[in-house]
Predict the structure.
Amino acid sequence: MRRRELFTLAAAGSLLTLAGCGTNKGAAYTDGRLTMAVVSTYGTGTATYADMAAVANAIADVKDIRTRIMTSDTAIGRLLPLKQGTATFSRTGDDYIFAFEASYEFATRAWGPQPTRLVWGPTAPHGLLTRVDTGIRGVEDLKGKKIPRITANPSVNSKIGVALTAAGLTEDDVEMVPISYGEQADGLKSGQLDILFQQVYGSSLFELESSVDVRWVEFRKDDAALQQAIDDLSPSLMLGEFSGAPGQKEGETSIGYIYSVPIISYAETEAETVSTFVNAILDSYDVYKDSTRTTPDWAPGSAVLEPQQVPFHEGLVAVLEERDLWTDAARKKQEELLAREPRLNEGWQIVTTEVDDDSRLADTWAQWKEGNGL
């Protein structure tokens, strides 16, 4: 298979028309046909990147659409190319939800509510990995341990927060260690961390397993406190089984977080561009489905087909309608989220006009949303 996913803009050639702004950000066309898209995502040592690279190879071979992959360890780093117009899509964590809501790093004057849209929502298992010698087995054992606070990554930090909340703990009960997402494996190995959070099949974790005895922090599906923490803090999460990950014996299963790490775009990206890319993902599935442990979950049977916290892009809706995958329940949720968006934008204008002190902006915005039923 040709390795063409890391396609550079400079090599695009004279036949490509690159749309760096407007309605098809970071996309290129030849004779009106989509021939290249730019996708931002996590770093090269992650399973998320490995999936995206496998899909990029497949759609290059099957549909002759090349994909340039840009990497970043931070939420802002993955979303900024979309905002600036240098990327067409981003495959990212819950950052797209936080951008839509103007939460965490996005509750600033430079950001505010963003018109993010889900383009395709494959799911993947994630969990908390620890060294055997830490003595950590369940979330109740996290007290006093060294816990990562991932730099500029509210998606991961919120899910670590779910585990702490389920154990009845706060950050005051543990030692929070600032660290980047990609540095976690080395941090766990060196003892800088006692746990890490990642997608369970990341290549850096298999490398870690070769030198350190590791195991997954135990979650239970019947843990009422854990389910309550999920409902309160991260409602897009589900609990599910995974196997074949680092630290597991053959045939062993563990429970982890199952959630979508979707491809997203902005609402202004043309529907045809999105539909073409989604159809390419679906039509080339047989080529890439066995590439990694999680590429099978790019199929419609595993992907998220109903909006959760952010609307679907109209181009995705068109594909789902054509393939008889768009339901009345999905349509109703889509309409609710689309109606929420202008209320967020109007509220943001009110708050940013009334608040002069930027240090108070995020708190005031959160209070305004709560007071107005958002």
